[in-house]
Amino acid sequence: MTKNPLKEKLKDKKIILGSGSPRRKMFLEELGLDFEVRPKSVEEVYPKELQGQEISEYLAKLKAIPFNEELEPGQIAITSDTVVWHNNRSLAKADDKDEAFEMLRTLSGDWHEVITSVCFTTKDSQKTVSGITKVKLKDFSDEEINYYIDTCQPFDKAGAYGIQEWIGMIGITEIQGSYTNVVGLPTDLVYKTLMEL
Prior knowledge:
197 residues; alpha/beta; 8 helices; 7 strands
């Protein structure tokens, strides 16, 4: 039987996913990797002057800090962060229904960027890569936005939406770049980086 090239490459390594995201876990499983899920909680605060990709890279590295003391040789910790960037503003996770509604109303009928940065940390090195996908949403009615928020409760997602959910099915009119990046992990970049590590 033909072997998975990535799994072969990493057979002497131990992958640790520093995220509780079910979507990121699913993508690593679909890449055929053996890994341990070990989320660490960090306060996701970044310097106000950072823009777009700088924010996601900063936060992906910040999430790696708790692993610095505990990584052993042969272990690779993967941490990541996703930012929705629109009109020079970062749309983070919504705290409540009103905030989610405002975000979706703002994104409605317009282009935005979804930026996911992934940080690979070993005992003696660190590398961060970022995927950027441009997404165009249709003009949503208030009813569509409210229905989506009520049924999907998208409060754990940057920009208050998940492309893989109902709103993505009815609302994505154009996409430039990686689809998996918008879901939460640029799998092509993760594969490439792990093959090169």
